[in-house]
Amino acid sequence: MISATVSALADAALLLPASILLLLYLAALREWRLALALAASFAGAAVATILLKLIFNACGPGLANAEVISPSGHVSFSTVFYAGLAILLSVGRGRVVQFAAGIAAALLLVAIGISRVRLGAHSIPEVLIGFTVGALAVGFFVWLSLREGLPHLPLAPVAGGFALTLVMLGGSQFSLERDIALYARSLAASLDVCALPPGYQPWDASGQAATRAFEGA
Questions:
Q1: Which of 15-19, 90-94, 132-136, 208-212 has the lowest mean pLDDT?
Q2: 33 or 61: which carries more pLDDT confidence?
Q3: What residues does the Phosphatidic acid phosphatase type 2/haloperoxidase domain cover (predicted)?
Q4: Which residue range(s) make up the domain with 67?
């Protein structure tokens, strides 16, 4: 129950609308370059994660003792969102607040990673890849934003917007995992690369996912 609740905080059904609201808020403040930097980081993490999912969904099952089939999108995108949010909200609020925000974001992200493993949705290497992708995207955001300087954002509108999104969409689920997996294996078959092991069946007779790779993004 706890793992499912924590994992839901990283679901695209929550984070995509929350990210859009955050970007719109930055745009309303006329922080155009900051909004573009954050949007580029979100997009970079999403594209990198999807590409890695395509590669490993196509080739992962054919590798001996492969532990990576689908790098965690929950982890990669939540890393960008929550770390980026912690950075934005701690600017100009003193070292103690900055330290506390960083620790809180780190603990939440570790909890999300653990929840994905405990739910059987991902292996530890898949979670670590997700963290790596997210951390690189956060680094890219920091590099872009520091060139222009970070503003002191009011806390209440951001916290209120996220709380509203959480109340409305918390617990919802959205995943393209099955579509990505099927496309990856169709592409691999058409290109005649990364042959699957004999008898490998990603779906059972009822059409449900037969491997953990399809249980979550």
A1: 208-212
A2: 33
A3: 70-145
A4: 2-214
pLDDT tens for residues 174-187? 777 777 777 777 77
What does the chain look like in DSSP terms, one character per residue? -HHHHHHHTT-HHHHHHHHHHHHHHHHHTT-HHHHHHHHHHHHHHHHHHHHHHHHHHHHGGGSTT---SS--HHHHHHHHHHHHHHHHHHTTSHHHHHHHHHHHHHHHHHHHHHHHHHTTS--HHHHHHHHHHHHHHHHHHHHHHHTT------HHHHHHHHHHHHHHHTT-----HHHHHHHHHHHHHHHT-SPPPTT--SB-TTS-B-SGGGS--
Quote the number of domains for the chain.
1
Residues in the chain: 217
Q: Which of 200, 176, 192, 193 is nearest to 59 (CA)?
A: 193
Amino acid sitting at position 210 = A
Q: Contact, 61 vs 197, CB < 8 A?
A: yes
- Nearest Cα neighbor of 76 from 50, 54, 103 is 50
